[in-house]
Specification:
This protein is of the alpha/beta class. It has two domains: 112 residues, Aspartate Aminotransferase, domain 1; 231 residues, Aspartate Aminotransferase, domain 2 (3-Layer(aba) Sandwich), CATH 3.40.640.10. The chain has a seven-stranded mixed sheet, sandwiched between helices. Strands 1-12 form a two-stranded parallel sheet. Strand 3, helix 5 and strand 4 form a beta-alpha-beta unit. The longest helix has 27 residues. The protein is globular and about 60 Å long. It binds (2S)-2-hydroxybutanedioic acid. The site of (2S)-2-hydroxybutanedioic acid (LMR) has 6 residues, from loops.
């Protein structure tokens, strides 16, 4: 009998764990216990635990169905009107001629292009990342083969920013390094820079010649559309080069349609045009062209003042629910008061990974391993069961 001596390609794969957050989403979905609270993955939920299609998006979908007469390719930049209409919301103004914007598959697509662009321009650039950060940030940076320099951003025990450590880290950066910043609604901590701190960060970036990559995925879910973009706009005004990875997945509720944009501010129009060519080539190698449907919906909403007003009103309602839940959780115990000060969809509970398992197994409450919870993951009538379980853990 002949023995097959050839090695198998897939035998070379090493064991890896599935993404913890996405695994949590599946575990929560499969849990049949009454009254479970799924505060894991970051999607907006109503008090009934639903993530509805936003009213303006539903209307845009009807119009798209009526109007769309072709599904032929749009090209590597996707829907060209989409980033133009988004720009005033993100930047408070139209794109200047030293700026480019293009559609991407979600915020992940924008971040992927952002870091691969950095790699193409300066492979030796180091990326400064405050910890904790969104679980997928570091894998995305590593995917572009860039070196990561971590610094402490938030002290979970103290529930405060590690401001001095952040300043010290950014001051140690070399010219040409990159700093990843959360535009608003910091994920996972909910702890954001103040306007004064943004000014200080911008001044350090300019002084050191560091290029900011700003990830803005939750605009409008913190304090308001304008307020949530304040820090980003300070950095845009100050720095000659800025990269912005934007996502509409949350604020337009189009998660599974994967709708994002990459914007780049270059020092002049010629460099911006060259940058666009490079980004499009990178996109071509990754996914060739972004999916159209969700971006077309956002374009339809933002092209029509009535639909735009409808979208803004619903976003206000969503944010109102998050703020109200934050207040109720904060009022339940002085040890949770900080949650009322933080912004956006997430905050971190003062619990250990073992206590996270206890929450899940004994109380059917799902939060991420680091204690991050989605504030709107609980129904209005579940706030007490949530806070009682957390308080019991804190009491030991
Ligand atoms: C989250 O942080 O929960 C979301 O951004 C979903 C994801 O892809 O991780």
């Amino acid at each position: 009998m002949l023995t097959d001596t050839k090695s198998r390609l897939l035998d070379g794969l090493e064991h890896i764990e599935p993404d913890a957050l996405l695994q949590l989403m599946v575990m929560a979905r499969d849990d049949e216990r009454q009254g479970k609270i799924d505060a894991g993955v970051g999607v907006f939920k109503t008090s009934e635990g639903k993530t509805p299609v936003m009213r303006a998006i539903k209307e845009a979908e009807k119009r798209l169905h009526e109007e769309q007469d072709s599904k032929a390719y749009l090209g590597m930049a996707g829907d060209k009107l989409f980033p133009k209409l988004l720009a005033p919301i993100v930047f408070g103004e139209e794109l200047g001629d030293n700026m480019i914007g293009l559609q991407t598959p979600g915020g992940c697509g924008a971040l992927t292009l952002a870091f691969k662009l950095v790699e193409a321009a300066r492979p030796q650039a180091r990326v400064f990342v405050g910890t904790p950060t969104w679980a997928n940030h570091q894998p995305l940076i590593a995917g572009a083969d860039l070196e990561i320099i971590e610094y402490p951003y938030y002290d979970k025990a103290d529930t405060s920013l590690c401001w001095d450590a952040m300043v010290e880290a950014l001051k140690s950066a070399r010219s040409g390094d990159v700093a990843l910043l959360h535009g608003c609604c910091h994920n996972p901590t909910g702890a954001n820079l103040t306007v004064d701190q943004w000014h200080e960060v911008a001044a350090i970036l300019v002084d050191r010649g560091v290029v900011p990559v700003i990830d803005i995925a939750y605009q409008g879910l913190g304090v308001g559309l304008e307020e949530d973009a304040a820090g980003l706009r300070i950095v845009m005004d100050a720095c000659p080069e800025v990269i912005v990875a934007q996502s509409c997945d949350k604020n337009f509720g189009v998660y599974r349609d994967r709708v994002g944009a990459l914007f780049v501010k270059a020092s002049d129009a010629k460099t911006a045009a060259l940058t666009m060519k490079h980004i499009q080539q990178i996109a071509r190698e990754m996914w060739s062209m972004p999916p159209d449907h969700g971006a077309a919906l956002v374009r339809i909403v933002l092209s029509d003042p009535e639909l735009t007003a409808m979208w803004r009103a619903e976003l206000d309602e969503m944010r109102g629910r998050i703020i109200d839940l934050r207040r109720r959780v904060a009022e339940s115990d002085p040890r949770l008061a900080y949650i009322g000060e933080q912004e956006g969809m997430f905050s971190m509970l003062p619990v250990t990974p073992e206590q996270v398992v206890k929450l899940r197994e004994e109380h059917a409450i799902y939060v991420a391993n680091n204690g991050r919870f989605n504030v709107c993951g609980m129904g209005d009538d579940q706030v007490d069961s949530f806070t009682n379980a957390v308080r019991a853990l804190m009491d030991g």
